[in-house]
Specification:
Layout: E1 2-6, H1 12-19, E2 23-28, E3 39-41, E4 54-57, H2 76-90, E5 96-102, H3 106-109, E6 115-117, E7 130-135, H4 162-167, H5 171-181
Parallel strand pairs: 1-2, 1-4, 2-3, 4-5
Antiparallel strand pairs: 5-7, 6-7
Helix pairs in contact: 1-5
Length: about 180
């Protein structure tokens, strides 16, 4: 399959699909952390019409996540632009779509999530409530439920790269997506 991983700079989801033999490409405004040649550094909206079979989108959550709700009243314009971006991604001319974001504004402004997952369901002893919205995809099934759950990402100290660490998809979730939606 020809697969687009939108708004991904880490390459984790792209790498998982490529490991399963798919023609997977990531696209982000940032360069790929792994310096892969299978990365398009551009606005993902510019490549939506390239004949993809499946797209997995990770739009920025800065103005959408519930953890930032206390600032929503002062960031209305930015939030509306972020929601319009999400709407464009969900309406892309791609047969199968998954969109990932934390609990937040998408759930009330656009639609409730199709599914909510946690990293501990996919082999990581951590908690990070993750919402998924689907177009023509089945729910992601847990692959490795673990105990000893922590909130490592929530407790990260402030730093210039904190947002990058918090935005990366867990490898176990990426592999589950590739195995379940790619096969």
């Amino acid at each position: 399959m020809k697969i687009l991983i939108g708004c991904e700079f880490s390459g984790r989801v792209r790498q998982a699909f490529r490991a399963h033999g798919h023609d997977a490409w990531s696209c982000d405004l940032l360069p790929a952390e792994d310096q892969s040649v299978f990365h398009i550094q551009d606005n993902v909206l510019a490549v939506l019409n390239a004949g993809w079979d499946l797209a997995i989108f990770h739009p920025p959550c800065t103005y959408l996540c519930g953890s930032g709700a206390r600032w929503w009243a002062t960031r209305g314009r930015e939030q509306q632009e972020a929601l319009e971006f999400v709407r464009l991604l969900l309406a892309a001319p791609i047969p199968h779509i998954a969109l990932e974001n934390p609990v937040g504004k998408i759930s009330t402004a656009i639609a409730p999530p199709s599914q909510i997952i946690q990293p501990w369901q996919y082999g990581h002893p951590e908690m990070k409530t993750t919402c998924l919205w689907y177009k023509n995809l089945p729910p992601l099934q847990p692959t490795d439920i673990v105990t000893g759950r922590t909130q490592r990402l929530w407790r990260l100290p402030p730093s210039p790269d904190r947002w990058k660490e918090r935005s990366r998809t867990y490898a176990g979730i990426a592999h589950a997506m590739a195995a379940q939606w790619g096969d």
